[in-house]
Specification:
Elements (H helix, E strand, L loop, with lengths): L2 H6 L2 H4 L13 E3 L2 E3 L1 H31 L14 H4 E5 L6 H11 L2 E7 H4 L2 H13 L3 H5 L4 E7 L12 H11 L4 E5 L7 H4 L3 E5 L4 H14 L7 H11 L3 H12 L7 H25 L4 H10 L4 H15 L3 H24 L5 H13 L29 H11 L6 H18 L1 H11 L3 H5 L3
Parallel strand pairs: 3-6, 3-7, 4-5, 5-6
Antiparallel strand pairs: 1-2, 1-7
Length: 453
C-alpha cells in the first residue's frame, strides 16, 4: 500500500479491535443493573440461533399441515419473541458501540449487515435494505458453507417523527420475522422509540473512564512510534473529548501528523479554530477555483482535514455554490456514489478505494458546476450538521424555526434542518410571493425569515 494511503487511513479504523476480548469495553447496565457486556452479547447470539432453529423446524411442520387442510383449520406459523431476536445498545457517540458489534462478529465468524437508520429512515428504504436479508439465506449460502449474518441497525434515534412513513413499525416487523440476530444502536434516549424499548432489552452503555482511554491512546502512540505527546497533553485531549474515544484518537492522529514544531498544548486548544479556518478556505477554493480533477486532487492532498469530515462540509455547502438544477443533480449523484464507495471501504477494509472516494466527493462535485454558475465573490460557508463527534448542531434561530414547524407537523428537528428547510428555501428563492406567504403562515420574525433566503 502506498505510504500516502497508509497515512490517510484513520487510526480509528486502523486500530479497531478485531476481537471483543481486545477491546476496552465500556460498562453497561440493564435497568440500572450492571452486566458483563461481552458475555451477554455472545449468549444473546447463541440463544438466538438455538431458538430460531427450533421455530423453523416447527414451522415446516405447520406449513406442511396447512397445505393439506382447509383455510379455517390452518395454523399460524410461529415467530421468534422480539426480546430473543434483537437488543439495543444505547450510549453517547464514540464509546465503541459499532466496534463492539464488528469485533463480536469477527469472534463468531459472522458477517455484519449494516444500515444506518437515520439515513435510511423510510419504510421503503428500510425494507429494500434489510427485508430480504433478515428473512432468507442467499443462494450462495446453500451452495457453500457461508458465514452466519449479524444485522446492525445504527442510529435508530435518528428516525423521529416518521410514524407516517412506517419506519418504526417496519423495524419491529423485521425483528419478528428475522432469521438472524439484530443489534440496534442509538446515541440517546428518545420518547418516540418507546415501542422498541417495550419489546427488546436496552443496554445503557457508559463512556469509557479517562484512564482506560489513556491506556488505549498510549498503546496507539507506541505502535506509531510517537513520543512527542506528554501524558499531560494526552489528559488535555481526553478531557476535551469528554469520554469520546473516537474523538480522542482522531485528535491524536491530527496532531501527530500535523506541524511538529509548535507547542502541543497550544495546538490542542486551538485545534477546532485552526481546522475551521482551513476548511472555510478549502471549501471556497474547491467550489470557486478548481477547474480540473488534478486541481481538486492537489487541494485535498494538501489538506490535513479528516476525509470524512471534509465530505460532510462538501455535502452541506454544495447548494451555497451550485445553483443550476442539472448541476446540483450531477453533484448529488457523485456524492451518493462516493457514499456507496465509503460504505464498501468501511465494511470490507478496501482502503485502496479511498482515492476514488476523494475524486467523487471533491473533484466530481466541484466539477459538476459550469463557468456560468461559478460566480466570484464571497459565499457563506456553513458548518455541517453532523460533526465528527456525532452531535447535531443548530443555531438559536434555527431552534425557534424548528419549534414553529413542529407546531404544524410531527417531524424531527434533524429532518426539518436537513430536508424541510432546504425545500422551503428552494420555494422561497423562486418567488418573493412564496417567501411572504410562507413567512406569514409560520409567523416568522425577521431573523427566522432570513433562513429562507
Amino acid at each position: 500500500m502506498p505510504s500516502k494511503l497508509k497515512k490517510n487511513i484513520p487510526w480509528v479504523e486502523k486500530y479497531r479491535p478485531q476481537s471483543i476480548n481486545d477491546m476496552a469495553l465500556p460498562t453497561a447496565k440493564i435497568k440500572g443493573h450492571k452486566v458483563k457486556l461481552n458475555e451477554d452479547l455472545k449468549n444473546f447470539i447463541e440463544y438466538f440461533f438455538k431458538e430460531i432453529e427450533q421455530i423453523n423446524i416447527k414451522n415446516r411442520k405447520i406449513r406442511q399441515f396447512n397445505r393439506t387442510h382447509l383455510e379455517k383449520e390452518q395454523k399460524e406459523v410461529l415467530k421468534i419473541a422480539p426480546e430473543k431476536a434483537a437488543i439495543l445498545l444505547e450510549g453517547p457517540p464514540g464509546v465503541g458501540k459499532t466496534s463492539i458489534v464488528y469485533a463480536l462478529a469477527n469472534d463468531l465468524n459472522m458477517q455484519v449487515i449494516e444500515t444506518n437508520a437515520s439515513d435510511t429512515r423510510t419504510k421503503a428504504n428500510l425494507e429494500a435494505k434489510l427485508k430480504e436479508t433478515v428473512k432468507t439465506r442467499g443462494i450462495m449460502d446453500y451452495i457453500m458453507e457461508s458465514k452466519r449474518k449479524l444485522i446492525l441497525i445504527d442510529e435508530v434515534d435518528g428516525i423521529y417523527g416518521v410514524s407516517d412513513r412506517g419506519a418504526l413499525p417496519t423495524i419491529l416487523n423485521l425483528i419478528e420475522s428475522t432469521q438472524f440476530p439484530i443489534i440496534l444502536c442509538s446515541n440517546e434516549y428518545k420518547q418516540n422509540l418507546q415501542p422498541i424499548y417495550n419489546k427488546i432489552k436496552k443496554y445503557e452503555i457508559n463512556p469509557l473512564p479517562d484512564q482506560e482511554i489513556l491506556r488505549v491512546a498510549k498503546r496507539i502512540l507506541k505502535e506509531e512510534k510517537i513520543s512527542d505527546l506528554s501524558e499531560e497533553d494526552l489528559h488535555l485531549i481526553i478531557e476535551k473529548n469528554n469520554g469520546d474515544l473516537r474523538g480522542t484518537i482522531n485528535d491524536i492522529q491530527a496532531l501527530s501528523q500535523g506541524v511538529m514544531d509548535k507547542e502541543y498544548k497550544d495546538l490542542i486548544l486551538k485545534l477546532h479554530r485552526d481546522s475551521y479556518e482551513e476548511i472555510f478556505k478549502l471549501i471556497r477554493d474547491l467550489f470557486q477555483k478548481v477547474r480540473t480533477l488534478k486541481e481538486a486532487r492537489g487541494l485535498t492532498d494538501k489538506s490535513d482535514v479528516d476525509y470524512n469530515f471534509l465530505y460532510k462540509w462538501v455535502n452541506e455547502n454544495l447548494p451555497n455554490f451550485i445553483n443550476l438544477k442539472n448541476e446540483i443533480t450531477n453533484a448529488y449523484d457523485n456524492l451518493s456514489i462516493a457514499d456507496e464507495i465509503f460504505g464498501r471501504i468501511r465494511r470490507n477494509q478496501y482502503w485502496s478505494l479511498l482515492p476514488y472516494f476523494y475524486d467523487l466527493f471533491a473533484g466530481g462535485v466541484a466539477l459538476s458546476k459550469s463557468d456560468k454558475s461559478s460566480k466570484p465573490g464571497f459565499r457563506r460557508v456553513s458548518f455541517p450538521r453532523y460533526r465528527t463527534s456525532g452531535f447535531f448542531a443548530v443555531t438559536a434561530t434555527e431552534k425557534l424555526f424548528t419549534e414553529k414547524i413542529q407546531e404544524k407537523y410531527n417531524i424531527s428537528e434533524r429532518e426539518i434542518i436537513q430536508d424541510f428547510l432546504p425545500f422551503l428555501r428552494t420555494l422561497c428563492r423562486s418567488s418573493r410571493r412564496q417567501l411572504k406567504e410562507i413567512a406569514e403562515w409560520l409567523e416568522l420574525d425577521a431573523k427566522e425569515k432570513k433562513l429562507l433566503k
